[in-house]
Amino acid sequence: MTTDAAKSSEKEMAEICDAIHYIGDMSLEAAASGFSRDDMIIAVRMNTEGGDPEILAILHPAFDRIIEYAFFNNRFGLSDAAQRECQVVEQLLLELVENEPE
User: Fold this and answer.
1) How many CA atoms lie within 13 A of 60 on its CB side?
2) Average pLDDT, the chain
3) In Å, how far are 10, 97, 98, 99 from 102, measured between CA atoms?
4) CA distances (Å), 96 to each of 54, 57, 92, in order?
């Protein structure tokens, strides 16, 4: 992998992790405002329409787990849970890239 490609990949992973943390924060706010977990899941799906289906197949379950965590746990530990989701997503995306035919 070239230096530019590695930097680009790091930037993309940072953006994905930011999105996971953002969804956690928005889920906490939605729960406090009386919205349901299902409302939040639907909103995330609507906002990611048109993305790469293979990548979304990895991201949506991670987003769902963070939403679930935010709705059924307290704010304490959400950052740790989001960080674990980032690690899971990173591993799955690396496997996806490694399995791509050249």
Assistant:
1) 16
2) 85
3) 21, 10, 10, 9
4) 8, 11, 6
The length of the chain in residues reads: 102
What is the rounded CA–CA span in Å between residue 70 and residue 76? 10
**How far apart are alpha carbons 83 and 75 in whole angstroms?**
14
Q: What are phi and psi of 77, to 5 degrees?
A: 95, -10
String of DSSP letters for the chain:
--HHHHHHHHHHHHHHHHHHHHHHHHHHHHHHTT--HHHHHHHHHHHTTTS-HHHHHHHHHHHHHHHHHHHHS-STTHHHHHHHHHHHHHHHHHHHHHTS--
pLDDT single digits (tens) 3-45: 555 556 788 888 889 999 999 999 999 988 999 999 999 999 9
For the chain, how far is it from start to end, CA to CA, in angstroms? 14
